[in-house]
Write a structure and sequence with these properties.
binds zinc ion; alpha+beta; single chain; 5-stranded antiparallel beta sheet; DNA Primase, Chain A; Dna Topoisomerase Vi A Subunit, Chain: A, domain 2; about 375 residues
Length: about 375
């Protein structure tokens, strides 16, 4: 067993820019809060970034990142122990208790600083989200309504949680420049509300007003339509803190039944299809949010078991006795199922008497695809 002599803690408090300097990484330039430059391993220019405030780095080409120790491992192509030796020297034969205590205190202070930084960043993101929310106007009669209508979705009553902004800035990180405005365009803005009903995030979908039913094709500042991995740039972005929140497409009602899909379109399709009209229909924003933190099991990425210590995770409101999660058929089935199971099991554990189900769309499709087909069939 390796004795905890405080060396790991000591390595973790070395500012990451100092680690970079000791590893001979130079030529980084400022980009917002980050430093950007060439990756010392793959040489990829502007794909390697360091965030000194958070003490982390990332290379988008090597697809690696982490803290200062991980940076030493990456650059020196060595294991954790060797990286530790590099940063704080070999283990002392008999560590000085005063030195161990000093290292641990320094690690604690650094951890506190990191938490403060994250709390400030979260507060700023929520503030931004609320500004966006208040500036947007009701979605009824706008391109947001056209977008959903063209996808087969009409609401019995338009949800006040869906708003619209005709010229909404698309703000996203761009290497070397930080978070910048890529363009402005028509955008459906959904309010994500926490358990107390406060808007803590906005879910933004840029729509193509010339092609109703289509999301906007996003062009990056360099003119590209896809990222390094060949994936289209996302037409949907969340700003704020979505954790534990949901987009409430219908009021809670008194039926005790809640139907939740991941996306707004998926969940709205269930409303439009006339399934359980008395139920509450809320969109969970993303699967991770519906799952909450899962118990970590050796060798299993998604255990499907909720970590009940995650007190910020989403839970159905009081009064919900039946919870239905919609599983889309177009995402990787195993992790998707595990995440949904985690969310259902969490709800059952925290709301005694609650029963839960997972309803699956056909393989390869989501509920909105099926809704579109239903409309085609209705026309015949
Ligand atoms: Zn790299």
């Amino acid at each position: 067993m390796i004795r905890d002599d405080g060396r790991k803690a000591a390595a973790k408090v070395i500012p990451i820019l100092e680690v970079a300097q000791r590893l001979g990484i130079g030529g980084m330039r400022r980009a917002g809060v980050e430093r950007v430059g060439a990756c010392p391993v793959c040489g990829g220019r502007d794909r390697f970034s360091i965030n000194p405030a958070r003490g982390v780095w990332n290379c988008r080409i090597c697809d690696r990142g982490g803290d200062g120790l991980a940076l030493a491992e990456h650059v020196l192509a060595c294991n954790f122990q060797a990286a530790l030796d590099f940063l704080v020297g070999k283990a002392d034969v008999a560590p000085d208790p005063a030195e161990v205590a000093r290292r641990k205190a320094a690690a604690k202070a650094a951890e506190r600083q990191r938490r403060d930084y994250e709390a400030r960043a979260r507060a700023r993101a929520i503030r931004d989200a609320r500004e966006i929310w208040h500036a947007a106007k009701p979605g009824e009669g706008t391109a947001a309504e056209e977008y959903l209508a063209a996808r087969g979705v009409r609401f019995p009553a338009w949800p006040p949680t869906l708003r619209f902004s005709a010229s909404h800035p698309y703000m996203k990180h761009w290497p070397g420049r930080g978070v910048v405005e890529w363009f402005r365009g028509p955008c459906m803005i959904a309010g994500v509300q926490d358990a107390a009903g406060r808007v803590t995030a906005v879910h933004q979908t840029w729509v193509d007003a010339r092609r109703p039913g289509s999301k906007l094709a996003i062009t990056a500042p360099d003119g590209s339509l896809v990222d390094d991995k060949g994936k289209k740039w996302p037409a949907k972005l969340v700003r704020g803190s979505k954790k534990g929140g949901a987009v409430r497409l219908t009021p809670l009602g008194t039926s005790g039944v809640m139907i939740m899909g991941e996306g707004i379109e998926t969940t709205a399709s269930a409303i439009a299809a006339g399934i359980k009209p008395a139920a509450a229909f809320w969109a969970g924003v993303d699967l991770g949010n519906m799952a909450g933190r899962q118990v970590k099991l050796e060798g299993v990425r998604h255990s499907g078991q909720p970590d009940l210590g995650d007190t910020d995770a989403w839970l159905p409101p009081d009064g919900i006795t039946q919870l239905v999660f919609i599983q889309d058929g177009d995402s990787d089935p195993k992790p998707t199922r595990a995440k949904l199971l985690s969310g259902i099991r969490r709800a059952a554990a925290c709301r005694p008497g609650l029963r839960g189900w997972i309803v699956k769309a056909e393989t390869g499709r989501d509920l909105n695809d099926m809704r579109m087909e239903q409309i085609e069939n209705d026309r015949d």
